[in-house]
Amino acid sequence: MKTTNDLMNKLKTEVSDERALKEYLEKNTQLSEISSTSFAEYFSGLLHDKGITNGEIERQTGLEHAFCNKMINGKVGITRNNMLALSIAAGLNLDEIEKCLVLTNNGALYPKDSRDAIIIYSINRGLTLAETNSLLYSKGMELLGQCKE
């Protein structure tokens, strides 16, 4: 998988006209797939594929039923913290979570940020939301999924 920096460098150095831009877009189908899919569609599809219910997500996050459903179904904006909480509760991997961040217009996880590094560590090791929050708490950092409607 190409990093954002790889793609930026390619755009800067190799894409000099519209033909090259068209080729770039065709080769990087992930960009068009992401832009044509909503968070609700993508996240619901992942939940379905993994056999996870909204109720399981609600129990793990501790978010109230109506608010959790509104976020999952794209009826309300979703904060970065809540999106990460939903995604970790669903057991998504790092690539899936990064796509969710893009689809919700939230910032990507940044490995130079201490809090994000802990979150990346937790995701890569398959930690639960409770375990992730415990690790964040032990470092004196803001927990995930604490924001209500």
Q: Helical percent range?
A: 55-70%
Show unreliable segments: none
Distance between the termini: 35 Å
Largest sheet: none
| SSE pattern, N- to C-terminal | HHHHHHHHHH
For this structure, the quaternary state is: single chain
Percentage of residues in strands = under 5%
The assigned structural class equals mainly alpha
Number of strands: 0
Outline = globular
Radius of gyration, whole Å: 17 Å
Mean pLDDT across all amino acids:
87
Number of helices: 10
Task: Give a quick rundown of the structure.
The chain contains 10 helices and no strands. It has helices at 4-13, 18-27, 29-35, 39-50, 54-61, 65-72, 80-89, 94-103, 114-124, 129-138.
Description:
With about 150 residues, this protein is mainly alpha-helical. It has helices at about 5-15, 20-25, 30-35, 40-50, 55-60, 65-70, 80-90, 95-105, 115-125, 130-140. Helix 5 (about 55-60) crosses helix 6, helix 7 (about 80-90) runs antiparallel to helix 8 and helix 9 (about 115-125) runs antiparallel to helix 10.
Chart the SSEs and their pairings.
Layout: H1 4-13, H2 18-27, H3 29-35, H4 39-50, H5 54-61, H6 65-72, H7 80-89, H8 94-103, H9 114-124, H10 129-138
Helix pairs in contact: 5-6, 7-8, 9-10
Annotation keywords:
64% helix
